[in-house]
C-alpha cells in the first residue's frame, strides 16, 4: 500500500526510503564522461546513469522523428521504471539524440487503420507512460533540443522543469486540434497546471505550435538557452533541484500532482473506451490520413 502523500505509481521506492541517502555530488562539467556510469540501451531509447551524482541521461534515438510508437512507449515506461527502482538514481534528464527533433508525438500510424485491440493496447501504453513520468519520484528535467508537438509536448510538460534550445524554428505545443482530434483531459490538465487555464484554452482550441521564444513567453518552457549550452544548463538545474532533501521535494510534488494523476487512474478504462470509439470513427480516420498526406506533400 502507498503511504499517504506518496504518488500512486511510484510506491516501489517510498519517499522516506530515498531521503536517507547522502547529498548529491555536484555534476561533472559538460563534455566530460560521467563516471561511474551504468548504461542500458534499448532500440529506441538510450539511458546512462551517473551513479556518483544520481543523475540519469535519457536520450530518444528513434529516427527520423522519435515518434511515440507502441514499442517506443513500452521502452520508455520500462526505462523509467528501472530508474525509479534504482536507489542510485535521483533525477533524469530527458533529451533527444535525433537532430532538430525532440519528439513528433504519438506515432500517427499506430492510430490509423488498426484493430480495436491494437488501439486499446496502444492507448494503455500512452497512459502508462504519462502516469510513470508525471508521477515520478525522481527530479525530471526536459532538455528540449528540437520540435516537440503533441505527445512530445506532453512529455516535456510532465517533467519538473523544461529548458528549450532558443531556435525559433523549433516549436512546441498541443496541436491535436490541427489533426482534427482532441487532446484527452489529462493532456489538458497537465498543460493547465503549467501555463494556466486561459493560455491552455486558447492554445488547445487553436492547436497552436509555439516557436521557442513564444513558448518561453507563455511559460510553456521555463528557460531558453543557446543549443550548445542546453545540456550544461540541464545539469545545473538538476543539481539545484537535487540539493534539496528528496522526501520534502517528493511529498510536495505529490501534493501538487496527485489529484490529476488520481483522476486518470480512476477513469482509466473509460478513457481507453473513449479513445477507441473516437479514433475508430471513419471521419477521424479520414482526418488522420489527410494529415499524414499533408506531411508527406510538405516534404516533397
Ligand atoms: N507519426 C508518424 N509519422 C510521423 C510523425 C508522427 N507523429 N511525424 C512525422 N512522421 C513521419 C513523416 O510522415 C515522414 O515520413 P516519410 O519519411 O515516410 O515521408 C517522416 O516522419 C519525417 O517527417 P518530416 O519529413 O515531416 O520531418 P521534418 O523534420 O521536416 O519535421 C516534424 C518534423 C516537425 C516533427 C513534422 O514531421 C511534424 O510536424 N510531424 C507531425 C507532428 C504531429 O502533429 N504529431 C501529433 C501526433 S498526435 C499526438 O501526439 C497526440 C494525440 C492525442 C490523441 C487524441 C485522442 C483522440
UniProtKB/TrEMBL annotation:
It is found in: Mitochondrion matrix. One of its GO terms (biological process) is fatty acid beta-oxidation. Pathway: Lipid metabolism; fatty acid beta-oxidation. Gene3D superfamilies: 2-enoyl-CoA Hydratase, Chain A, domain 1 (3.90.226.10), 6.10.250.170. The keyword Metal-binding does not apply. It catalyses: (3Z)-hexenoyl-CoA = (2E)-hexenoyl-CoA; (3Z)-octenoyl-CoA = (2E)-octenoyl-CoA; (3Z)-decenoyl-CoA = (2E)-decenoyl-CoA; (3Z)-dodecenoyl-CoA = (2E)-dodecenoyl-CoA. GO terms for cellular component: mitochondrial matrix. InterPro entries: ClpP/crotonase-like_dom_sf, Enoyl-CoA_hyd/isom_CS, Enoyl-CoA_hydra/iso. Its EC number is 5.3.3.8. It is an enzyme of class 5 (isomerase). It holds the Pfam family ECH_1. One of its GO terms (molecular function) is delta(3)-delta(2)-enoyl-CoA isomerase activity. Keywords: Acetylation, Fatty acid metabolism, Isomerase, Lipid metabolism, Mitochondrion, Transit peptide. It comes from the Eukaryota. Key enzyme of fatty acid beta-oxidation. Able to isomerize both 3-cis (3Z) and 3-trans (3E) double bonds into the 2-trans (2E) form in a range of enoyl-CoA species, with a preference for (3Z)-enoyl-CoAs over (3E)-enoyl-CoAs. The catalytic efficiency of this enzyme is not affected by the fatty acyl chain length. Homotrimer. Belongs to the enoyl-CoA hydratase/isomerase family. This is Enoyl-CoA delta isomerase 1, mitochondrial. It comes from Tychaedon coryphoeus. The lineage of its organism: Eukaryota, Metazoa, Chordata, Craniata, Vertebrata.
Amino acid at each position: 500500500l502507498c503511504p499517504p502523500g506518496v504518488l500512486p505509481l511510484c510506491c516501489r521506492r517510498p519517499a522516506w526510503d530515498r531521503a536517507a541517502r547522502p547529498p548529491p555530488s555536484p555534476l561533472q562539467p559538460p563534455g566530460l564522461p560521467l563516471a561511474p556510469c551504468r548504461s542500458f540501451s534499448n532500440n529506441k531509447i538510450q539511458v546512462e546513469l551517473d551513479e556518483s551524482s544520481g543523475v540519469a541521461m535519457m536520450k530518444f534515438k528513434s529516427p527520423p522523428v522519435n515518434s511515440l510508437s507502441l514499442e517506443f512507449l513500452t521502452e520508455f515506461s520500462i526505462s523509467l521504471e528501472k530508474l525509479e527502482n534504482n536507489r542510485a538514481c535521483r533525477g533524469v534528464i530527458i533529451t533527444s539524440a535525433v537532430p532538430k527533433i525532440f519528439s513528433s508525438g504519438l506515432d500517427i500510424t499506430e492510430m490509423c487503420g488498426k484493430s480495436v485491440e491494437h488501439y486499446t493496447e496502444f492507448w494503455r501504453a500512452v497512459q502508462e507512460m504519462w502516469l510513470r513520468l508525471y508521477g515520478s519520484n525522481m527530479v525530471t528535467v526536459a532538455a528540449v533540443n528540437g520540435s516537440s508537438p503533441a505527445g512530445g509536448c506532453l512529455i516535456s510538460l510532465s517533467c519538473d522543469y523544461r529548458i528549450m534550445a532558443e531556435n525559433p524554428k523549433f516549436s512546441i505545443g498541443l496541436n491535436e486540434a490541427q489533426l482534427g482530434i482532441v487532446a484527452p483531459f489529462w493532456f489538458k490538465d497537465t498543460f493547465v497546471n503549467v501555463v494556466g487555464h486561459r493560455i491552455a484554452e486558447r492554445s488547445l482550441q487553436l492547436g497552436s505550435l509555439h516557436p521557442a521564444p513564444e513558448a518561453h513567453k507563455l511559460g510553456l518552457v521555463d528557460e531558453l538557452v543557446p543549443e550548445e549550452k542546453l545540456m550544461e544548463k540541464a545539469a545545473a538545474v538538476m543539481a539545484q533541484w537535487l540539493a534539496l532533501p528528496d522526501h520534502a521535494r517528493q511529498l510536495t510534488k505529490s501534493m501538487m500532482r496527485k489529484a490529476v494523476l488520481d483522476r486518470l487512474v480512476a477513469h482509466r478504462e473509460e478513457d481507453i473506451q473513449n479513445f477507441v470509439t473516437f479514433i475508430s470513427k471513419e471521419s477521424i480516420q479520414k482526418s488522420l490520413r489527410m494529415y499524414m498526406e499533408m506531411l508527406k506533400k510538405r516534404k516533397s
